[in-house]
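Re: the 267-residue chain
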Amino acid sequence: MSSKLIQPPSIAASRRAIPRRTRNPKVFVSFTNSNGRTLSFSDIPNRLRPIFIGKVTEQSSCSSSTNEQQQQVEEGRTVSQIKEELYEALKGINRGIFGVKSDKKTEIEGLVKLLECWNPTPEPTGELDKIGGCWRLIYSTITVLGSKRTKLGLRDFVSLGDLLQQIDIAQGKTVHVLKFDVRGLNLLDGEFRIVASFKISSKSTVEITYESSTIKPEQLMNIFRKNMDLLLGIFNPEGLFEISYLDEDIQVGRDGKGNVFVLERTE
């Protein structure tokens, strides 16, 4: 009679569960030195070699953009061209206040991210003189739709004019002005004004605190009186605000709610 040595199932299974070691495993190591530079290494056994050296920046918005977007710039699209494309994309959408089609919104936000990747002022709160002055909103992801738009009369009775931001660096104040045209009352120069203060929170972020608001003239106040909380809830700038792109002409910012704002300098 022949006999066979039968291995217990548990031992056989445990051996099969152990994967074979691969040869020459690679390990990636990175660290930041005192000069703010990141060094990364590929560890091929017994040898370390640098594979990337780059400057560390505090710009979260750019890091979320795709490699394809960055490649588009590297292949020849200049910042001026990106800005021209952005202005072209913004035509006819009334700053996005009353909604934008999804494909158009994707196009605009893609261009905004490209700009953020080439921000010439990565630490804007350290160069406050570049922020001061008057800015006009040309795009925002904040929208006034449906019943909100109806309650505020922003369909036929009231037209929304310029949205301006006046920044006084010396006083640490911002004044946000919403211009209105109320054709029904022959008012061509009404406005909603919000005064706020700001303080530096980080190299690219400020914290905005609401102080007061007024509506002029009195006839316009009578229209909005019942919906003041709604109006303020939409346009109140209070909270953290990150300046993600800043040059002589354009400012891009993001608030704590994820809204995007694009502003152009104006007199």
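The first helix runs from residue 9 to 16.
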